[in-house]
Amino acid sequence: METAAARTEAAGSDLPFDVFARACPSRETLEHVTGRWGSLTVGALREGPCRFNELRRRVEGVSEKMLSQTLHALERDGIVHREAQPTNPPRVDYELTPLGIEVADRLLALIHCVEGSMAQVLTARGAYDATRAGR
Question: How many domains does the chain have?
Answer without folding.
Answer: 1
